[in-house]
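Human: You know discrete backbone vocabularies at least as well as I do. Show me how you would write down a chain together with its backbone fold. No explanation is needed for now; the record alone will do.

Assistant:
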Amino acid sequence: MNYYEVGRIINTHGIKGEVKLTITTDFAAERFQKGVRLYIEDQKEQPIEVKLQTIRRQKQFYLLGFSGYDSISQVENFKGRKLMVAQEDQQKLSVGNYYYRQIVGLDVWDEKNNQLGVVKEILNFGANDIWVVERPHKKDLLLPAIQDVIKKVDLENGKIEIELLDGLDV
């Protein structure tokens, strides 16, 4: 089974078994609900299945409590680990929307059919994502993930077609 990160446990919170989480998913409201099944990364074995019992927001973080984990000593070793969702539990996306894992690694081509590089990571700054394209012998190209720039995403062929607007390639 494949698992995908939805957050990272950065610390414990209080003495009743809660953990403090940074979010790495666009679907926090759906992902973090009471009774939802998630998995905690375990380097030695299969991920540890947990069920959400409590969910609270604290600034940009979430405070989560898991069923059966009622003390700080039970969750202390979760610090620094990924909180994940199973592939089977991922939501279906609408047409034109993609998971980061689907975009990272795709080849990027411009409107003149020149290969520019490969998407190496995606940054999220709020208004829209920025796709970071690694190019041989050049600085990384930062592409805003907007319709004016991203013309076509072809997952089958591993290719993204873009229009390189003035000022993007500096």
